[in-house]
Amino acid sequence: xxxxxxxxxxxxxxxxxxASHSVRVLSDIARKDIERSYNIDNSSDTEAYYSNRYGxxxxxxxx
Length: 63
Hints:
The protein is an alpha+beta fold and 63 residues long. It contains 2 helices and 2 strands.
């Protein structure tokens, strides 16, 4: 039990890293799916974006 507490103390920001990685992976999957469904060849300046109102959409990057 003590080892579990020690591991949690060592990695306090780990859950945020996992969440951001999961969002990035889901965004990439959605982007690729949208590109395939619309036959988009050049998507270097696009990203998949999720909104509660519209769901997954493809938009230009905000670089």
